[in-house]
Amino acid sequence: MKTEVRNIEEKIIHPVNGAVMLIVNLMLLAAFGVLFAVGVQQSVVGHLIVAAMMIAVSCVGVVAVLIAFGGLKTVRPNEALVLTLFGAYYGTIRKPGFYFVNPFSASNSPLYTAAVKNVNSKSGEVGTIAIPGRKRVSLKNNTLKNEKQKVNDGMGNPIVIGTNVIWRVDDPTKAVFNVEDYAEFISIQTDSTVRNIARLYPYDVIDEENDESEKTLRGSVQEIADRMQAALQEQVNIAGIVIEDVKITNLAYSEEIAAAMLQRQQATAIIAARQKIVDGAVGMVKMAIDKLGDEEIVLLDEERKAAMVSNLLVVLCSGKDTQPVVNSGSIY
């Protein structure tokens, strides 16, 4: 049987001013105190029934006022207070201020726990202590630093990729009721989104002919980050979260293939450099032969032109400095 996910719509409430209710509660507390004192005085003079009624009313009134103090709530800027009443959604307060709400309503927010190291004095074991979280939902921008994770790129090569995600809660009601813990929810969704998008693209192009047409993780960082943002936004809409930005902060080949890929890049660079050197050398040789022939400095037959071309190419294409040999005799 398929379970339907109930999408709770946000209901903004406008509660009573908390300062006014605080003054009223203090005045009622003082009045019930006076009534209690009068009741005690009446019991001394012998009016026991009247005294008992006055003392009972004052006691009940004091308890009611103390309960009413629990309805005083504060909301700070860029925070929201999500309230439930006897298990049902009561409403959300977005506007900052000091308010009075139903004292039986409870504020709700996923627990934020901080892992604090705790060393057991007897066993010496290291554990953690969970610090209870706040009861208000923050609407401020948050940064999620997605740790480096090893994934396979579009060609199956293992790579290491890390991202930073800037996000905020836009609908606190959805963030509280639609997911268990929206901070953990977005962290898990970020991991899966980065993994799914990264495996669609190669890290770098292998065939230089496809350099302009094929998108790569290294060459199209911003476009791929934008696609990650759109995919992640679709996943976290149910939690009322808005993804402001996604940035790829770390991108590299995994350690086991990094050396091999570095050799391939070095080989590609060497080949490109050699090709440029050969193109330049051929042009220089042609220019030298044409110059000698046009100005009739020396007349060379085909065999000696071939020897000259060979010698010039060796000199120009050599990776090391060449040592000239001077012929003091005849060249024939």
Description:
The structure is a single chain. This protein is α+β, with helices and mostly antiparallel strands and 332 residues long. It is 44% helix and 23% strand. The chain is built from 7 helices and 12 strands. The strands form 4 sheets. Strands 3, 4, 6 and 9 form a 4-stranded antiparallel sheet that branches. Strands 1-5-2 form a 3-stranded antiparallel sheet, covered by helices on one side. The protein has a 3-stranded antiparallel sheet with strand order 10-11-12. β7 and β8 form a beta hairpin. The protein is rod-shaped. The termini are far apart. Residues 113-119 and 126-131 have low confidence and may be disordered.
Features:
single chain, 332 residues, alpha+beta, four-stranded antiparallel beta sheet, rod-shaped
Distance between the termini: 100 Å
Order of helices and strands: EHHEEEEEEEEEEHHHEHH
Helix content: 40-55%
The class by helix and strand makeup works out as alpha+beta
Total beta-strand segments = 12
Mean pLDDT: 77
Please summarize the sheet with the most strands.
4 strands, antiparallel
- Which regions are unreliable across 5 or more consecutive residues at pLDDT < 50? 113-119, 126-131
From the alpha carbons, calculate the radius of gyration and give it in angstroms: 40 Å
User: Helix count?
Assistant: 7
Tertiary shape:
rod-shaped
β-strand percent reads 15-25%
